[in-house]
Design goal:
single chain, 233 residues, Aminopeptidase, six-stranded mixed sheet, 7 helices, binds zinc ion
Length: 233
């Protein structure tokens, strides 16, 4: 069964959260990053639920009740800080030190992306959503929305922030994070049309073994498999 991850974009609706530089609203940043985290985790095969999918008012009790009723395996609340326009950086909270492993994994993976100004570390706090969740919970304050440097990270580096959070959740759950490949990846253009890349799947001294390998590959659906004999120089 797929693990269940509950992501909680802080604030929303009537509650804008902190108001930052250029009237940036915390609730909008939180939701945008949370949706990116959700997309990344779904690609990793996890089940994901958000406490809100749009700009709606949701009480703290509704958030924790939804996560508890759904029996989530972990809960991550996403927020932005604000203080005195001088404070900078990222910090991640758990309810107690003994339940800080999720917070530590999420925090360290976001730090690895480099999308922060100051590493304020992991801390404990009795925030409502950390206290009233039945599963492991963490609350990340991505950056301070009320100074220019941090606000820039919140607006231009959301993909890095989301990737760090998603990787940290996978790490906590013991799931290897598989990088995005296939349709989303950039394929470089063909530079030299005379160069082809043959895929080799074994070299044998005895032709019988080579033919056995061809048979195996054909059974796997690689119909255009063939043998090339060559002499070692
Ligand atoms: Zn907040």
């Amino acid at each position: 069964m797929a693990k269940k991850v509950f992501i909680d974009p802080g604030h929303g609706g009537n509650d804008s959260g902190a108001v930052g530089v250029d009237k940036l609203l915390e609730k909008n940043i939180n939701l945008s990053v949370a949706k990116k985290v959700k997309d990344l985790l779904i690609k990793q095969g996890l089940e994901v639920k958000l406490s809100r999918e749009s700009d709606t008012t949701v009480s703290l009790e509704q958030r924790t009740t939804a996560a508890n009723n759904w029996k989530a395996d972990c809960f991550v609340s996403i927020h932005c800080n604000a203080y005195n326009t001088a404070a900078h950086g990222i910090e991640t909270f758990s309810y107690t030190e003994s339940t800080s492993n999720l917070a530590k994994d999420v925090h360290s993976e976001v730090i690895k992306t480099g999308a922060y100004t100051v590493n304020r570390g992991t801390k404990t706090a009795s925030f409502y959503v950390l206290k009233h969740t039945n599963m492991r919970a963490a609350l990340i304050e991505l950056a301070f929305i009320d100074n220019k440097e941090d606000a820039k990270i919140l607006t231009t580096r959301q993909d890095d922030l989301a990737l760090g959070v998603a990787k940290g959740i996978c790490k906590y759950l013991g799931i290897e994070y598989k990088p995005d490949s296939g349709s989303g990846g950039e394929i470089p253009p063909v530079v030299d049309t005379n160069t082809f890349y043959r895929v080799v799947c074994g070299s044998f001294n005895n032709r019988v073994y080579a033919e056995e390998r061809v048979e195996e590959l054909k059974q796997l659906g690689y119909e255009d498999t063939f043998i090339i004999a060559y002499t070692k120089e």
